Amino acid sequence: MFQTSTLYINKQALTHNLNFIQNLVGKKVRFSSVIKGNAYGHGIEVFVPLAEDCGITHFSVFDANEALRAYNASRQNAGIMIMGMIDMYELDWAIQKGVEFYVFDFERLFNALEAAKRIGKPARIHVEVETGMNRTGFDERDVDKLIKILQKNKKYYVLEGICTHFAGAESIANYARILTQIKRYKNHIKKFRRHNIKPKYRHVASSAATITYPETRLDMVRIGIMQFGFWPSPEAFINYISDKIEKDDPLQRIITWKSKVMDTKYVKTGEFIGYGTSYMARNNMKIATIPVGYAHGYSRSLSYQGRVLINGHRVDVIGNVNMNVLIVKITDIPETKRGDEVVLIGKQEGAEITVASFSDFSDQLNYEMLTRLPEEIPRIIEI
Ligand SMILES: *Cc1c(COP(=O)(O)O)cnc(C)c1O
């Protein structure tokens, strides 16, 4: 495998984060590790066995493809739950393997029950109810019909969960909307209970809700971004830390992204650097090229704004991030030479570049930048 950069996944930091989260929610609350988006870029195949070593027994994915990858990567027979897309022809596989999946419409429900009948094994379903996100979920007006079908077909399914998803628990701006969702969810649960339908797990909380609305932890939490050492938003971090004496961030980043200097050169005052005329050298400068660009997942939105570490120094990305190359200014560290280590995300000699330091541009950049890290970049576990 020839690659221009490498990702390192730190096991100690992961262990630390998982313990922190499990202690926070308590032992009675099940921890489902959300690994959609290729485990937020960390790599499903690398991450699943690592998380299992740290005690994780349940994973949540978006679709059947990720479920298959998680299933193959699991060494300890973990539970796997599909929260989004599963096609009709993928249901048989899921039921046979005991993979759990969301059911949010009648068509999928009928297909699942039918497949279960045919296979002779119950479908492990999570009924998703609509509470106000308006993406997927059974509407209130459909619940009576749903309950009737569930009562009639008890042999063909196991009700693993009743769940919903909040429309932005990471921002206080959505406070009223989230409270309404919590209320509607409770009403749903009451109704199911009146008809003697009880799920094994009631679950609604992602990282943000787990922090900001502790009452939503219920029987299981679905934690994505936090296990990787990132807060879902600065607000969520402030919310957590506000009543703590210790103000240090309790989470640790588990990812480091490294490359090497490809070349260096001097540029004279007045010359343009890179494509077009957007960056002019205002002094005599020394620059280094790094063989990583937006095709490798280094966001183009970091043009002129990103920072990388070389020889323990923080240096600026200048000009636009190109498809395969970015250029940094090394005038202050002229000793830099070809082959020197470059840290794009992570630590080097006491300095640190966090993905979060980019997130001033957008709260979503953590999620986006991580999940855009291409699958081909090798992931190496650091013990
Ligand atoms: C992504 C996702 C989560 C996890 O979100 P984080 O903010 O990363 O913790 C939980 N539930 C659902 C339905 C999701 O899609």
Which terms would index this structure?
TIM Barrel, 11 helices, 10-stranded mixed sheet, 2 domains, Lyase, Ornithine Decarboxylase, Chain A, domain 1, elongated, 383 residues, binds pyridoxal-5'-phosphate, alpha/beta
Low-confidence segments: none
Rounded average pLDDT: 95
How many distinct folded domains? 2
Structure ligands:
pyridoxal-5'-phosphate
The helix tally amounts to 11
Distance between the termini: 22 Å
Concise account of the structure shown:
The chain has helices at 11-25, 36-40, 44-53, 64-73, 88-97, 106-119, 143-152, 175-194, 207-212, 234-241, 365-371, and strands at residues 5-10, 30-34, 58-61, 79-82, 100-103, 123-128, 157-163, 201-205, 220-223, 255-260, 263-267, 285-290, 307-310, 313-318, 326-329, 341-348, 351-353, 379-382.
Secondary-structure blueprint:
Blueprint: E1 5-10, H1 11-25, E2 30-34, H2 36-40, H3 44-53, E3 58-61, H4 64-73, E4 79-82, H5 88-97, E5 100-103, H6 106-119, E6 123-128, H7 143-152, E7 157-163, H8 175-194, E8 201-205, H9 207-212, E9 220-223, H10 234-241, E10 255-260, E11 263-267, E12 285-290, E13 307-310, E14 313-318, E15 326-329, E16 341-348, E17 351-353, H11 365-371, E18 379-382
Parallel strand pairs: 1-18, 2-3, 2-9, 3-4, 4-5, 5-6, 6-7, 7-8, 8-9
Antiparallel strand pairs: 1-10, 10-16, 11-12, 12-15, 13-14, 13-16, 14-15, 16-17
The structure holds pyridoxal-5'-phosphate.
